[in-house]
Specification:
Shape: globular
Structural class: mainly alpha
Radius of gyration: 11 Å
Distance between the termini: 28 Å
Helix content: over 70%
Number of helices: 5
Strand content: under 5%
């Protein structure tokens, strides 16, 4: 559902849903990456970078995390 909200441009609602998922499931990498993307779309670069960087440290082969970090 958060992905649909993101596509429709409802970034604040998407962020809210994704944060709830990450709070319930801290190891949910997909939700973290989607949250990072939503934050990037909101121009909250540092917040996005912090989430993606954490993922690259834990999963050095995660290409999407590196993409969101900008590497």
């Amino acid at each position: 559902q958060a992905e649909k909200l993101t596509r429709k441009g409802n970034l604040l609602e998407a962020e809210k849903l994704l944060r709830a998922v990450v709070d319930r499931e801290p190891s949910n990498t997909k939700a973290k990456l989607n949250l990072s993307y939503v934050l990037l779309k909101q121009r909250r670069i540092l917040d996005s970078y912090t989430i993606s960087l954490e993922i690259t440290r834990n999963d050095s082969k995660n290409a999407r995390a590196y993409d969101l970090v900008g590497l």
